Amino acid sequence: MLHLRLITPSDTTDDVVRLIEKTIGTTHLVVVPGAARNPVGDVVMCDVAREAGDELLTGLQELGLDRTGSIAVENIDLSLSERAGKAEAEAPGEGADAVLWEHLTDATHEESTLSFTYITFITLATMIAACGVVLDNAILIVGAMAVGPEFGPLAGICTAVVQRAPRLALRSLTALLVGFAAAMAVTAGFSLFMDAVGLFTRAQLEADRPNTGFIYAPDWFSFVVALLAGAAGTLSLTSAKSGALVGVAISVTTVPAAANAAVALVYSDTNQAGRSSEQLLLNLFGIVLAGICTLLVQKWVWRKANRRPAPAA
């Protein structure tokens, strides 16, 4: 269930209440006239089944409430109410399958912002991965994948394409490109320092690396894994039953490939640098392609589910 807290201008309250009352899956409607002070208006609260949330939010925006008042949405972790259970049963579809597009757009907007924290995380992840590729240590590679925040901008690009949001697409693409460029540049400097103190050597990079050699060996299997990871990550982002996306792309080599390319460039190993870059681009493309397809399928399935008549009470 979702809890909505609305601030409505007095002349809009009746329209808002009618919209809530006719939306299947709503309950616990409360109207407090004149309670709001900034902006001035009435306070309207209700609970709505997650599967009916997107329809209600769209209707509220069509009434202009996002401009003239306020729309706040919270997840309800526990609701001990027969009315809430009835509302969820009446709403079409399953709550876990519902996609709140406004929430998705807002979440990916935040995750795809080019910030100091984002740059720091992706740089640290790439430096950890650099240690992993030189030492041929799979544990460090997995750790770098978990730390890397690059799925945020990737999810932002997917959402922007499906929702036709060019600003979000530009913001996400900027964060992705600038983030990787900065991380690789810093990692190259880090590699030079590690080489100067004798902790990195060219021989280590070019030796047989059974645990991490796949990072600069792109093939069709790499693309298949990227597709699967992209679909899993997108479902995790949109599902009501999934948590944060830390380490969602564990099985793909985005950050490790960037790290391997940076270290290889330091040692003028153009073969590894080129193949690592190919691996990076292949995985980025696969994740975005799978993410877009997953969102399109979810959108189609949900529209089809909403066309079905609600079950009889």
From TrEMBL:
Coiled coil: none annotated. Keywords: Membrane, Transmembrane, Transmembrane helix. It comes from the Bacteria. The chain crosses the membrane at residues 116-135, 141-162, 174-200, 220-237, 244-268, 280-298. Pfam families: DUF389 (PF04087). The keyword Transcription does not apply. This is DUF389 domain-containing protein. It comes from Streptomyces sp. R39.
